[in-house]
Design a protein that fits this description.
- With 294 residues, the protein is an alpha/beta fold.
- The chain folds into two domains: 3-82, Arc Repressor Mutant, subunit A, CATH 1.10.10; 122-283, 3-Layer(aba) Sandwich (Rossmann fold).
- The chain contains 13 helices and five strands.
- It has helices spanning 3-14, 20-31, 41-48, 52-61, 67-80, 99-120, 123-135, 146-160, 171-179, 197-208, 223-227, 249-267, 273-293; strands spanning 138-142, 165-168, 185-190, 212-217, 230-233.
- α7 (123-135) crosses α12 (249-267).
- The longest helix is centred in the middle third of the chain and has 22 residues, at 99-120.
- The chain is globular, with a radius of gyration of 21 Å.
Length: 294
């Protein structure tokens, strides 16, 4: 494992125990894990809007002796990055590897992304999100690009369990949906980077109109992360990410994991109404295909 991965693994392991101000430092370093840190501790703290003491505490919380040791780790990590790697593809995947080796590496990377997302889950927050899903009259899911595919999958799952779920993948219809959303509805916005303005704007409007809102993103302090009432975090890997350039393999797997978790929470609710809806759906589909085959 390279030093860059080690730094991010340390952040991941300690993230839940960090103070709010320390998480600001952690989030910055996750976004800039391939960059050298040239600033003094005072300059760095001022850039992030935190105190020198916060940066020092954060460094020690990750197991470094202090800020200078953290800077050294970043400098060594930035020098170890393969500049010839493919954008948005995990650097551990080597284009010269046989396909069976690539598949073994990829299975580990995707598994780690799910485990990383699991570690970020807050039990109370998860219960609140599932509770809103169970009690709402309608679910509106919004995302663009790869996230839109996750929204479609979520709408498919929720609909089979008796939830009125709709998915929108363009800014125009997302705003229309947010403008007309009812107070007893839930809007879920998905964005890996959290920078998708359309998703943030739609969540803000839906929230203003009294609907419940959930963001699924890797960046809690991003536009999307701050636009929703509740935010479920996905693990953000050390892969250099360039928006609109391919897809985020680990991020997309983490998003699907959270959607599946919401679905399982819905099915395993305090009553069995959604389980019965799922059973009725299965019976209807069985009858449909029997007739079709007959």
């Amino acid at each position: 494992m390279d030093k860059n991965s080690d730094l991010l693994d340390r952040i991941q392991a300690q993230y839940a125990d960090l103070r709010k101000s320390e998480k600001v430092v952690a989030d910055y370093l996750r976004r800039h894990s391939t960059d050298k840190l040239q600033q003094s501790i005072t300059e760095f703290a001022k850039t992030l809007g935190v105190s020198d003491a916060t940066v020092s505490r954060f460094s020690r919380a990750l197991g470094y002796s202090g800020y200078p040791d953290l800077k050294l780790a970043l400098a060594e990590a930035s020098g170890s990055v393969d500049r010839n790697s493919v954008v948005n593809i995990p650097s551990e995947l080597d284009r010269n590897d046989p396909l069976i080796t690539l598949s073994a590496k990829l299975s580990v990377l995707l598994s780690n992304s799910i485990l990383g997302t699991q570690k970020l889950l807050d039990e109370q927050l998860l219960e609140q999100c599932v509770g809103e899903l169970r009690s709402c009259d309608q679910v509106v899911l919004i995302g663009v690009g790869g996230a839109a595919a996750i929204c479609m999958e979520a709408a498919h799952l929720f609909t089979k369990a008796g939830v009125d779920a709709k998915s929108y993948d363009d800014g125009y219809n997302q705003i229309v949906a947010a403008a007309n959303i009812s107070k007893n509805s839930l809007m879920i916005g998905i964005s890996h980077t959290g920078t998708t303005a359309d998703i943030g704007n739609a969540l803000t409007l839906a929230r203003k109109n009294g609907a419940s809102t959930i963001a699924i993103t890797s960046e809690p302090h991003s536009l999307v992360g701050k636009s929703a009432a509740r935010t479920l975090l996905t693990w953000n890997s050390n892969t250099p990410s360039v928006p609109l350039y391919g897809d985020f393999l680990e991020g997309r797997m983490s998003q699907l994991f959270l959607i599946n978790m919401l679905y399982v929470g819905l099915i395993f609710g305090s009553d069995d109404s959604h389980t019965q809806k799922l059973k009725a759906t299965a019976e209807a589909l069985e009858a449909y295909y029997r007739h079709d085959l007959g």
